[in-house]
Amino acid sequence: MHVAYCFDDRIHPFLDAALTSLLMNHRARRDELVVHLVTDSATPELTRRLEELEQCFRGRLELRLLPSDLLESMAALPVPNSDDLDSRSVYLRLFLPERFRTA
Predict the structure, then answer these.
(1) Is residue 14 within 8 Å of residue 89, measured between CB atoms?
(2) CA pair distance 5, 90, nearest whole angstrom
(3) At CB < 8 A and 24+ separation, what contacts does 57-60 make?
(4) According to a count of CB atoms within 10 Å of the terminal CB, is the N or C end of the chain lower?
(5) pLDDT tens, position by position, 52-91
(6) How confident is the model at residue 35 (pLDDT cuts 50, 70, 90)?
């Protein structure tokens, strides 16, 4: 099973809980779990935490940084309301089929 999370640095604190829940609930399944983590930047802390989660649970976490041409094209998109957790990362799911093929 393939799952994608699209996020930016505003979502990092919540990503840990979502990934832990997904990985814990997938333990009993026999199919392989591949989680594609699509973002514009990755801190050393995020990378370390993803490695820890991957070691604790069955599943593969693939960090996918956005290419610069995509980031440039997204600059023209309107910014969602800054009062909540939305950001330009909400648009990333639109590019998933084109940019991040799995096979």
Answers:
(1) no
(2) 10
(3) 57/20, 57/23, 57/24, 57/26, 57/27, 58/23, 58/26, 58/27, 58/33, 59/22, 59/23, 59/26, 59/32, 59/33, 59/34, 59/35, 60/32, 60/33, 60/34, 60/35
(4) C
(5) 988 888 788 998 887 777 777 777 777 666 565 556 667 7
(6) very high
Task: Match 């096979």 to its residue by tokens.
Answer: 103
Enter the tokens of residue 83. 């009062």
d(CA 23, CA 29): 10
Residue type, 95: F
Q: What amino acid occupies position 17?
A: A
Contact criterion met (CB below 8 Å) for 15 and 49: no
